[in-house]
Amino acid sequence: MAKQPMLKFVSVGRDMPEKRNAEARRQDFHEIYAEYADAKAKEQAGRCSQCGVPYCQTHCPLHNNIPDWLRLTAEGRLKEAYEISQLTNTFPEICGRICPQDRLCEGNCVIEQSGHGTVTIGAVEKYITDTAWEEGWVEPIKPSAERIESVGIIGAGPGGLAAADVLRRAGVQVTVYDRYDRGGGLMTYGIPGFKLEKDVVMRRVDQLEQGGVEFVLNCDVGTDITFEEIRNKHNAVMIATGVYKSRDLQGPGSGADGIVRAIDYLTASNRVGFGDTVPEYESGELNATGKRIVVVGGGDTAMDCVRTAVRQGAKSVTCLYRRDRENMPGSQREVANAEEEGVKFEWLSAPIGFAGDPVTSVKVQKMRLGAPDATGRQSPEPIEGAEHDEPADLVIKALGFEAENLPTLWDQKELEVTRWGTVKAEFTTGQTAMEGVYAVGDIVRGASLVVWAIRDGRDSAAAILDYLGDAQAVAAE
């Protein structure tokens, strides 16, 4: 009788892939986790309890069939595990690397709730698809028949690329417009290489390009081409721009040199990683080398900034966050990684002013948590007389992102937006009030997760296929 490959959680402990030691990983931008060996991946996948109600799947925005591909991995049927994994997820190897599993699938794992330690779902997901690429199981996009209809997608981030994949596989002609010189959006220029190495993203962009998706890069809609021109050229249009307008710091001196936006800082660093010449980096404007760095914010972008500064050789790195550790929006795993790498966190601390131009220090106000606000979170309030100066040569604003004013930028007054500036769109389909115009991802949700953008892109692409109806004709060869 075959040995039971599952339910090993009672005898096998949770074991993540080996993490490089903090000193070694401070020296480069490579990913910090090693790969699982095949036997280790099987062993960890075999810890799954195969529970009747898989909360991991329920709490995954893509509703990935997690118990199924864990079982197939444990049984050594890795190609089948990959086939099941990619049925619901366009980019499983990316989600395996950057999803906050501690807040989603792994945080809701049944054996985690019972005290046995969660199944390492993200690490196994990454292992499955990385192996699929190595073994040649990832097949090129080859539609069974070409369609004459075309869709224009504005934005080459995760939402736009996921939609392009679904539409192209159905034979639709797809053109993706993006303001940057490479596809991938924030996956390329926002998220650092130590979380997501860039060849992983570029490999997917290449797959789409080779599958017939046309990329129009260095193209700023509203300047280089009008929204109306895109709309006239295609049967449907998808807005997947993301949100890039940075929230600003207030207080005396907040306009000083040396106070920069997180998106500019991270983009410069990632461009250097590609081998690009970046004048703002070379001049020191967006370079932490030898400097005292203060990052303001408590989300994942702030964690990306502090950990990037460490790798650039900062003299010191301090993170200010106005709430406490338990109430921060970023991943606790990322905070732990940052602390290991030497970042100092000042909880319950908010900047109220800046000295020097260029900046030399931040005036910090200590806070306490008061009554809950409208969302139920305790509101930070200042402690009278509790202030100090934090030396700084470079201050990075990582306070989150808001939507750009698309109706004005694109001269499209009929494009309806919410009071937050995000595009109004139907839940699940992404349909806007404009005929044949859809919107997905952060430009609808506000700043959110890559996995939600992928979900939105896939759902909206299916809705666009319904909108286009039966193929009008076969496109010319």
UniProtKB/TrEMBL annotation:
<dbReference type="InterPro" id="IPR036188">
    <property type="entry name" value="FAD/NAD-bd_sf"/>
</dbReference>
<keyword id="KW-0004">4Fe-4S</keyword>
<feature type="domain" description="FAD/NAD(P)-binding">
    <location>
        <begin position="151"/>
        <end position="457"/>
    </location>
</feature>
<keyword id="KW-0411">Iron-sulfur</keyword>
<keyword id="KW-0408">Iron</keyword>
<protein>
    <submittedName>
        <fullName>Glutamate synthase (NADPH) small chain</fullName>
        <ecNumber>1.4.1.13</ecNumber>
    </submittedName>
</protein>
<dbReference type="GO" id="GO:0004355">
    <property type="term" value="F:glutamate synthase (NADPH) activity"/>
</dbReference>
<feature type="domain" description="Dihydroprymidine dehydrogenase">
    <location>
        <begin position="25"/>
        <end position="136"/>
    </location>
</feature>
<dbReference type="Pfam" id="PF14691">
    <property type="entry name" value="Fer4_20"/>
</dbReference>
<keyword id="KW-0479">Metal-binding</keyword>
<dbReference type="GO" id="GO:0046872">
    <property type="term" value="F:metal ion binding"/>
</dbReference>
<dbReference type="GO" id="GO:0051539">
    <property type="term" value="F:4 iron, 4 sulfur cluster binding"/>
</dbReference>
<dbReference type="Pfam" id="PF07992">
    <property type="entry name" value="Pyr_redox_2"/>
</dbReference>
<dbReference type="InterPro" id="IPR009051">
    <property type="entry name" value="Helical_ferredxn"/>
</dbReference>
<dbReference type="InterPro" id="IPR006006">
    <property type="entry name" value="GltD-like"/>
</dbReference>
<keyword id="KW-0560">Oxidoreductase</keyword>
<dbReference type="InterPro" id="IPR023753">
    <property type="entry name" value="FAD/NAD-binding_dom"/>
</dbReference>
<dbReference type="InterPro" id="IPR028261">
    <property type="entry name" value="DPD_II"/>
</dbReference>
